[in-house]
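A reminder before we start the practical. When you read a complex entry, don't treat the lines as separate problems. The point of joint prediction is that each chain is placed relative to the others, so the output describes one connected object in space. Small molecules and nucleic acid strands, if listed, are placed in the same frame. In the example below there are two entries. Take a minute to note the order of the lines before looking further.
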Amino acid sequence: MTDRYDAIVVGGGHNGLVCAALLAKAGKQVLVLEANDQVGGAAVTREFIDGFAVSACAHLLYQLQPSVRKDLKLSPKLAAENMTTVVLDEKGEHIRIRGNSVLGVSDADAESYRGFHKRMTRFADLLRTYLNKSPPRLGTHDRRDLSTLGRLAFDVRRLGKTQMREFLRLIGMNIHDEVNERFESSLLKGALSLDAVLGTHLGPRSPNTIMTYLYRLAGDHGRIASPTGGMGSISDELAHAAREAGVTIRTGMPVSRIVIANGRVSGVETESGERFDSMTVISNADPKRTIIDLVGARHVETGFTHRIHHLRMRGNAAKLHLALDELPTIDGLERKDYAERLLIAPDEHYVERAFNPAKYGESSPDPVLEITIPSFRDSKLAPPGKHVMSAVVQYAPYDRKGGWTDAARQQFESATIRTIERYAPDIAQRIIASELLTPADIEREFHITGGHWHHGELTLDQFLFVRPVCSAAQYRMPVDGLYLCGAGAHPGGGVSGAAGRNAARAILQREKAA
Amino acid sequence: MTIQEVHQGRLRTPFFSRISALDTVNQWHEWKGYSSADTLYCEDTEYFAIRNATAVFDLTPMTKYRITGPETAAYINRLVTRDMDKIKPGRVAYAVWCDDRGQVIDDGTIFHLKEGEYRLCSQERHFAWLQAAAIGFDVSIKEETADIAALAVQGPTSFSVLSKMGLDGLAELKPFGLMNFDFDGADLMVSRTGFTGDLGYELWIEPAKAELLWDALFEAGKLHGIRAMGTHALELARIEAGYLAAYHDFLPADATVRTGRTRSPLELGLDWLVDFKKPNFNGRRALAEEKRRGSTWRLVKLDIEGNKAAHHSYIFAKEKGNKSEIGFVTSAAWSPVCKQNIAIGTVRTPHGKVGSTVWVEIYYQREMHWARAMAKATVFDKPFWFPPRRSATPPGPY
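Here is the predicted structure of the whole assembly.
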């Protein structure tokens, strides 16, 4: 049995849904095939034990792009719109960061932070313009490419001499050096370090960590939101918008291969053997899975395969979900603070030391954490009076030496609970059930190679013109009819929808040109 | 832990003892880590052995890879531009391979040893590229340069020499064919291939039997004018045959920095090796685009007036006026056997159509003083030297 569509999207992650919806709005017959039983990819809400639900992978919203909201008329319900970051202190002297203000540090630090935030936001705004555009190709004489490049150069120059110099100084630099130049508070330095390395295989002393920090700010000036009903609600809304536009979405349909005939895409085949025909296939899967597994190296060329094969995408962030019978006690925390984003990153050296073992394939004995208790503001996520905790825990290297055996998982989970205990001594007694998702689990459950959030490390050599790899950064892959629309394409990860939107626009533009 | 002895300096091939015993001029160069003779007696004598008798060349240093595994056929077909499905076991194919931009990395010969097993021979080393090309294929690639001793036995009497050596049935071997013989209990593979454009064979054997093979060969060839030769004579022969050499007539794309200095197979006159009917091979997209838009360069074989070899000459469209420069010569020689002044060059399209006339600027020295001549040249597309004996099966008993 075969069915013919104008376009098939492989994977119903949020970017896949955005892309599908926009293509359908342009009059295309679009089919989305999702391997899991619910759409959303890594942006889903699911119960991990009876009565306790949680955003299974991505849990905070940094950057759902206004252009995506507008194009698809989305109005996501948010439980929290602009969360405060509380950096936990063992003695209860926590600091609170929100926007350009930081409370609980010296006046000098508070002042310094205002300047730092202003500068960083300005640089991030520069990046932001380019998040919602297809990156220009280098070395062509195409008018659009040249004008985008010229515009980029102009935008950098327009920062002014001093700021341009500062931007160019910072862009390849590490966050550790920068925060040490500016601040004295260990907690503040720890928090900024963590923000820069969250979801990467990088430590605060790794080059490029200013860029990852800017990327985080670029979405929405660093404003952090939490959707009501968990991240899945965003995906549900996107799926709804897609269906309204006429997209056919089929779940529980893992695609086993993208069919290539006579050197071009001709459709997809699912694991159950069903065939769907289309001259356009858009993959929401990561570049490695798309090219090496679904298309097959033999259908593309060696240099390209080699670059895709060498994409750095080793996930290092684990997800820990705890079902709690009541809120844990954290010394010095006001009740309303439990609604906020809590960080365990006591200083910048602590973050780097947490990263050290990961370089050698071992997990951190003293990990860093980003904790939220979503049930605090969104009571439907847990039974009455009870709570769920959702935490990103680093570092848990994907390719852990000896593999992620039960003992290894147990060891990492215990280390994490012990770390939380330093701030919330009663945490262990509060736990009803727990779930740990290592990058290996994330790979299995969400079909992301290496379990890497961003579908590929966000570093200068895998960014903008060269994301995922050079000569294939414009969503179009070097097989006729094949496109990429996921986080592995420009601009990268995070629930932003930018990659999906840019891909849809690239496809429509190409059609118009043909 | 023991530290193994490491070879210092240049390696010696398994034939070194025999070649150095014949050597009279002590003129060697380095070839991929090995000592290789430029010439052993006199370049001309060695050259005339190729054309009139039998010349033996030690090609052990040539890079050799063994490619095995269930998916070798698909792998090779994606690697090279020509359709390798047509090359059955027991056959050899000349092939080029390109990068993603359709630029030639190298050329070489691919031996289909048996079903699913190939040997790739080339001038340059390509392990990294072959490995990169193996991503997603169930194949294994082994460098076997040092594991095989190889000799080229080339010239009109080569068939007689090998027959006398006891290789029964060799008469049936067609050009680009393979045969295996027993030699002193070892497997001796003989291929009807070579780099001279003449009747000739290449012999492949395990290194332990190398000296024995050499001795048997020279014993059999005693009355057939057999001689060992060095690379200088071979170089002249390969230009006459119109064969390309890396670093002379093209640059390996993976070792070239400047854009525009590499060449596509279409620009090297190797269109016949590019099979667009294959849905995918390395460089296909770029080459299809080049075919559509037209190539920038064209390879030309030149028959030049006069007798002064046009080494490194500029090629002009017109006799007068330096503005009409269209390319340059990449290999040149006075061909003794053709009695022609020949060259291989590269010119910008649309220049250099077959049969057209171009002008070659030749500088030459006469007792220290330099002189310049503009020589008229005609563009050829056939090899300069292509004797019927090269492809005659069975070959004649010269």
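Discuss with your neighbour: The first strand of chain A starts at residue 2 and ends at 4. What might explain this?
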